[in-house]
Amino acid sequence: MLESSFRIGSVFGIRIGVHYTWFIVFFLLVSSLFIAFRSDHPDWSAHATLLTALATTLLFFVSIILHELGHSVVAIARGVKVRSITLFIFGGVAQTAKDADTAATEFLIAIAGPLVSFALAGLFYLLQFGFSPYSETASETFSWLMTINLVVAIFNLIPGFPLDGGRVFRAIVWGISGNAIKGMQWAVVSGKIVAFGLMVSGMLIALQTGMLLNGLWLIGIGWFLLTVAEGSKRAYFMERLAGNVSIGDVIQKEVPMIAADRSILHWVDEQMLLTGRRASLVTEDDQTIGLITLSDAIKCPRTQWSNTPVREIMTPLDRLYIVKPTDSILEVFHIMQQHGINQVPVVDQKRIVGWIDREHILRILQLHVEAGR
């Protein structure tokens, strides 16, 4: 969802990134705060007002990062690896390597973020109280940050997945019923109710009050929550399914092969483009010696395709990641994600018996989901 982001640093080994949509909300927030501060304090200079708006906005996003770090620190302590935290147009999101394995872990991870926001609201209240006799601009900054962190904490506790409150709700249902699937199902239902409620509220605000921007913002948040709730549900059930289906059940036994001395051009024109297979095993003397993919071919200048044998650009067999028929689809999918590969040979007793590719896995899983299996 948030692939188009760039890194701004790391904390505890967690990558901190900014999605390009963040710049939109950054600009809007600075502009809104500038107008609000200018209206409330006409005696401030434009320069001072702008600096206060900028500082307040930056501290707000620091608060969002701290909120997500609250989730992340607890997740790491409970054995759940956190890959990254990304700021985007609707706030921040922490990406974990896996879901929580117990209801207690899910609850603790989910509640940690709002608790951090509540703590920040208290801290900014104390700072506002302490600075009020000395600096009006600092006092206004801390006052706004106190309020917004309180709003963030309360809003996130709404029991609608994927909000923190929805995850807390999921953990509670999971803990009471002992059924993780039931917890996810109820959390997604609550998430959809909240999402539709926000979108309807946004439309009413836009139509009845004329506050178009506020209405559109609520509609956007509602649409985002709806999309993420449905996507999370699909990913959750596909992952559980993938953990129970072995590679041996879905292996592709008809493996495309190409002789090592054939040219890249021959492989592209006579095999890949005609079959739609983006990769082939490379053989020599009836033995598999490597794997060639379209990505390998593209790295070679096209003018050299006709006289370059595939063995020169293939990945040798001893450098390939291989899997066994008894491995689950989930294990193989994690290997593909971790190493950025799309195909892996399947080996049984030191003999290649087939292969599996990412597209085939996703198609199989999607069919299982659609069939209700």
UniProtKB/TrEMBL annotation:
Zn(2+) binds at H67, H71, D164. Keywords: CBS domain, Cell membrane, Hydrolase, Membrane, Metal-binding, Metalloprotease, Protease, Repeat, Transmembrane, Transmembrane helix, Zinc. GO terms for cellular component: plasma membrane. The active site is at E68. It comes from Nitrosomonas halophila. The chain crosses the membrane at residues 20-37, 49-67, 73-95, 107-127, 142-163, 184-205, 211-229. It comes from the Bacteria. PROSITE patterns: CBS (PS51371). It is a multi-pass membrane protein. InterPro entries: CBS_dom (IPR000644), CBS_dom_sf (IPR046342), Peptidase_M50 (IPR008915), UCP006404_Pept_M50_CBS (IPR016483). This is Zinc metalloprotease. SUPFAM superfamilies: CBS-domain pair.
